[in-house]
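Narrative summary of target 7.
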Amino acid sequence: MVGEDEKMIKKILQKAWEFLQHPVETFRISKDDRFTEVLTYYLILFFLDIVLTLVFSSGDLVMLAKRGFPNVGGTIDPFMFFLIIFGNDLFRTLFLGTLGLLTGGILIHIGVYLTGGRKGMKKTFMALMYGLTPYLVTSWITSLVSQVGIGGDIIAFSGVVIIVGWTIVVIFYGVRELQEISSERAGVVVAVPLVVLPFIAVVLFTLVVLLSWGQGMVYSREMMAPPIKFSLDRNGDTITLKNLGLRTVNQIRLDEISRLEVRLNGVLNGTIGTATGSERTFFAPSCPAKVAIIAVFTNGTRREITTIKDECINNFTNITMKKSGKTVTVRNNGGPRLGEVAELWVKSGLQANQSLGTAPGSEISWTDNTKSCSFQVTVDAHLKNGRTWRIVDEEVDTSVPWGPIRSCN
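Modeled conformation, tokenized:
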């Protein structure tokens, strides 16, 4: 029995390889395949695709399991649920491989019938199940690539576009060969779902948004923004957090919240009032400081609604730089807390520390003889209270007249 299963799987994988290499010839020799054989072929490839996608998208699923679906007052947020379902590789594969297959098959067969195809609906679904081979065999690769880090998502998206285009071409060949219609008619048939399915998606998306609206949630370009606005102001070693109230376009109602917890660098630091204008001042000598606000709802559920990072450097002074030829210039443009600064020290590469005046508009320049056009510049603020903050740690960029320097021409 095991040997027979191995032979069947080997045969299916061999046929999938033939569809990838020579789809037209493979469809022609598969015209007389039984529907049950084609269904078995499809289900095995679909199962393998799900397993591989699950393996390489497990990190996203673990994160989702820890956080749970986005909710508003304990109720599943349908809008975010929609985004998660179609944004997660595994959920998208499950959806396309089941409902997508059924819907697409029906739409394609309607087109086949209207254009003169009379080989029956089974042939249409056979063409579609065989035609989905490129997607089933390769879509899991995009899940792997998306984990690569910087650039991974872009490469994965490009891969999805290529895979989808490839799959559409193979489905086109399948419809043409199995329904025995002309290329022109087959092209029209395959184009129908490409128009109708996006329309259905837009309608579904609209219904989801209206459902969200009915639950007291309205979405716009600010939908991903924190539902409650907060401001953060540092004064020496203390931070003042202020509740600025609900956004005009908000995702929650205040009567659903029992309290707002404040966490400083992951540690509970107390609560802040839900009323607009409420403030909390606390001691935060460490820098940078990460302040998270967690809403605790009346039904006991919790949701982190925003995180604010205090870099501790923005309020002292604004430092800009430029490079002209071999000359590097650093300028002190001043800032609201410049009066707390006793000295500003500039360091770059092999250059010794240089003092930059504390008066707004102060500048220092030096000649850089290195051949490299990219080098680090750091500026440390020595405060009158004895503390020292690194307020600049950047690279020089000749493409920006005055500003942080990232690269050179």
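The radius of gyration is 30 Å.
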